[in-house]
Design goal:
The complex is a heterodimer of chains A (250) and B (249).
Chain A lengths: L1 E13 L4 E14 L3 E5 L6 H9 L8 E4 L10 E4 L11 H7 L8 H10 L15 H13 L5 E5 L7 H18 L2 E5 L3 H7 L2 E5 L6 E6 L12 H13 L9
Parallel strand pairs in A: 3-7, 3-8, 5-6, 6-7
Antiparallel strand pairs in A: 1-2, 1-4, 8-9
Chain B lengths: L2 H26 L8 H13 L2 H33 L1 H16 L2 H12 L3 H25 L3 H9 L4 H39 L4 H10 L3 H30 L4
Helix pairs in contact in B: 2-10, 3-4, 3-6, 3-8, 3-9, 4-6, 5-6, 5-8, 6-8, 8-9, 8-10, 9-10
The chains are: A alpha/beta (250), B mainly alpha (249).
Chain lengths: 250, 249
C-alpha cells in the first residue's frame, strides 16, 4: 500500500518573455500509507507546485501521481492545509468546515465533534476575523480532516505562528494523525520542525526542484517541542554532516 | 447616548437644516421662482388628494423597477463574463467604452425613432443607458474574486451551486450593491427624461406639464415625493440587505 509520485519535468510559461521555466525535474517519490513525510527545500524550488500537482490544483500534464497503484486520483480523498488558513471570512467556523464536506453522511453533529476535538467548541459560530491566528489554523486543520482524507497535504501550515502556538498545533495534529492513520505530506522550511514531526524528510535542490537527499528521521515524537534534546541533537548532526543541505546542496 | 441614536440625531438635524435653508432662501427669492417647503407640501397634499401623485409616481416606479432589473441582469452577466474571460473582454471592451460615452439623450431619441413612442422603447432606452455602468462595476468585481478561495472550492470539489452561492457571490456583494445604488439614482433620472420626451404618464410627463405652465411648486412637489420614495427604497431594502451581508465584517 503506497503512494507514488513520478514527475519527469514540470514547466510554467512566463508571459513576460514568452519563455518556459523549469520548476520540477526527475521527481520519483514513494510514500507509504500512514507515513509522515516532510519536504524541505530552498524558496522557489517548486515545493508548493508539487503539492498543488498532487492536489489537482495545478495540471500534472498526464504525469504519474499514483495512489495504491490506482492511476485515477479522482477517486482518492485528499485534505489540504494551505500556507494561509484560507477560511472564507463571511462564513462562520462551522460553516467553513461544512462547506467542504463532500459526503452526505457527514452531519452537523460530526462537524461539531471534530471542531470540539480541535479545541474549538466555544467558537463554532464565530467568524474567522474574530478568532486568533492559531485558532484559524486549527479550523483549517479540522476542515482538512473532516472528510477523513487518505492523504493530507500541508503547505507550511505553522509559518508565522509563535512557538507555543505552533507546538500546541503539533500536538493536535499528531494526536489526530495517530487516530486517523492518514498519510501526511508536509512542506516546511524549518528543519527542526521536520525532524520533530516527520518519519522521513526529502531535501529538495534549488530550482528546478529535485530530491537531493532522502533522510529517515530517528527522533520519536515523545516530546513535541522543537527545542527538545533529541531534535536538537539530530538537527546538529545533520547540519554538521551536510552544511549546505538547506540550500539544496548535498 | 449610544452611537446609533447619536447618528440618528445627526441625520434628523441635517435633514431639518436642509428644509430650514430652503425656507430661508424662499423668503429672499421671488416666491414664484422658489416656493418654500410649506407651499410645496400643500401642492403634494393637493396632488395626493386627486390621486394624480400616486398614479404618476407608481407608473414611474414601475418603469424604474423594470429597467433596473433588466440593466442589473444583463450588465452583471456581461461584467462577470468579461472579467473572467480575457478574450471576451478584448472583444467587448470597446463596445463598453462606446456604451458609456454615448449620451443618454441620444439613446432615448434613437429608441423612440426606431421603435416608436411606446413602453418597450422607453424601458429599452433606460436599460441601455445603465447596462454599461453595471457591466464595468461587475467586471471589476469578477476580477477581484480571490483565487485562493476558488482553489479551496476546487480542491474539495464542492458543487457548482455551492461554489457560486457560498464562495463567489459573497465576494460580489459589494459590487452588486455599488451598481444597484448607482443604478437606482441614475435610472430614475433617465426615466424622467424618457417620460418627458415620449410618454403620456409618469412623473416626467407631469414635470413637463408643470414646466409648460411655469408651476415650480408642482415640479418640486413631484421631485420631492419621488426622492422620498427612493430614500425609502434605500433605507427599507438596500441598507438592511447591506447590514445582513456585512455582519462578518
Amino acid at each position: 500500500m503506497s503512494f507514488t509520485i513520478n514527475i519527469k519535468e514540470k514547466t510554467f510559461h512566463n508571459k513576460h518573455n514568452n519563455s518556459k521555466i523549469l520548476v520540477l525535474k526527475d521527481i520519483n517519490i514513494k510514500i507509504k500509507t500512514n507515513e509522515f513525510l516532510c519536504i524541505v527545500g530552498p524558496s522557489g524550488c517548486g515545493k508548493t507546485t508539487l503539492m498543488n500537482m498532487i492536489g489537482g490544483l495545478v495540471k500534472s500534464d498526464g504525469q504519474m501521481l499514483k495512489f495504491n497503484n490506482n492511476p485515477n486520483n479522482e477517486d482518492e480523498n485528499f485534505g489540504y492545509v494551505f500556507q494561509t488558513s484560507r477560511l472564507l471570512p463571511w462564513l462562520t467556523v462551522k460553516e467553513n468546515v461544512a462547506l467542504v464536506c463532500n459526503k452526505k453522511e457527514i452531519n452537523e453533529y460530526q462537524i461539531e465533534n471534530i471542531l470540539e476535538s480541535f479545541g474549538l467548541k466555544d467558537f463554532i459560530n464565530y467568524y474567522p476575523k474574530s478568532i486568533s491566528g492559531g485558532m484559524r489554523r486549527r479550523v483549517s486543520l479540522a476542515r482538512a480532516f473532516i472528510n477523513n482524507p487518505k492523504v493530507l497535504l500541508m503547505d507550511e501550515p505553522f509559518v508565522s505562528l509563535d512557538q507555543p502556538t505552533a507546538e500546541n498545533l503539533y500536538e493536535v495534529l499528531i494526536n489526530y494523525w495517530k487516530k486517523t492513520k492518514t498519510t501526511i505530506i508536509l512542506i516546511t522550511h524549518v528543519l527542526k520542525e521536520a525532524i520533530l514531526l516527520g518519519d522521513r524528510i526529502l531535501f529538495f535542490s534549488k530550482n528546478p526542484g529535485t530530491v537531493v537527499f532522502d533522510y529517515q528521521v530517528k527522533s520519536n515524537r515523545n516530546n513535541l517541542s522543537v527545542e527538545s534534546k533529541l531534535v536538537n541533537k539530530e538537527y546538529l548532526e545533520l547540519t554538521k554532516k551536510y552544511p549546505n543541505l538547506l540550500n539544496g546542496l548535498l | 447616548m449610544n452611537a446609533i441614536s447619536s447618528n440618528a440625531v445627526l441625520r434628523i438635524a441635517s435633514i431639518l437644516s436642509f428644509f430650514l435653508i430652503w425656507h430661508l432662501a424662499s423668503i429672499f427669492v421671488d416666491v414664484e421662482l422658489l416656493p418654500g417647503p410649506d407651499e410645496v407640501s400643500k401642492k403634494i397634499i393637493e396632488e395626493a388628494k386627486s390621486s394624480e401623485l400616486f398614479f404618476h409616481t407608481l407608473i414611474t416606479l414601475k418603469r424604474v423597477s423594470i429597467s433596473f432589473i433588466i440593466a442589473m441582469l444583463i450588465g452583471t452577466f456581461f461584467g462577470l463574463y468579461m472579467g473572467r474571460n480575457e478574450r471576451a473582454n478584448t472583444i467587448l471592451d470597446d463596445w463598453l467604452v462606446l456604451g458609456l460615452n454615448v449620451p443618454a439623450l441620444v439613446i432615448i431619441i434613437l429608441c423612440y425613432v426606431w421603435f416608436g413612442l411606446n413602453e418597450m422603447a422607453a424601458i429599452l432606452a433606460v436599460s441601455l443607458n445603465k447596462i454599461p455602468m453595471v457591466a464595468v462595476i461587475m467586471r471589476e468585481g469578477s476580477r477581484a474574486i480571490e483565487k485562493d478561495y476558488l482553489d479551496v472550492g476546487k480542491f474539495y470539489k464542492i458543487g457548482k451551486n455551492k461554489l457560486f452561492l457560498k464562495v463567489i457571490l459573497p465576494q460580489l456583494y459589494p459590487y452588486l450593491l455599488s451598481s444597484a445604488r448607482s443604478g437606482l439614482s441614475l435610472i430614475w433620472k433617465i426615466v424622467l427624461v424618457v417620460e418627458l420626451l415620449g410618454r403620456s404618464n409618469g412623473v416626467g410627463f407631469k414635470l413637463y406639464g408643470f414646466f409648460q405652465f411655469f408651476d415650480i411648486s408642482g415640479i418640486l412637489a413631484y421631485t420631492l415625493a419621488f426622492v422620498i420614495l427612493i430614500i425609502f427604497v434605500e433605507f427599507l431594502l438596500i441598507r438592511p440587505f447591506e447590514r445582513k451581508i456585512s455582519v462578518w465584517k
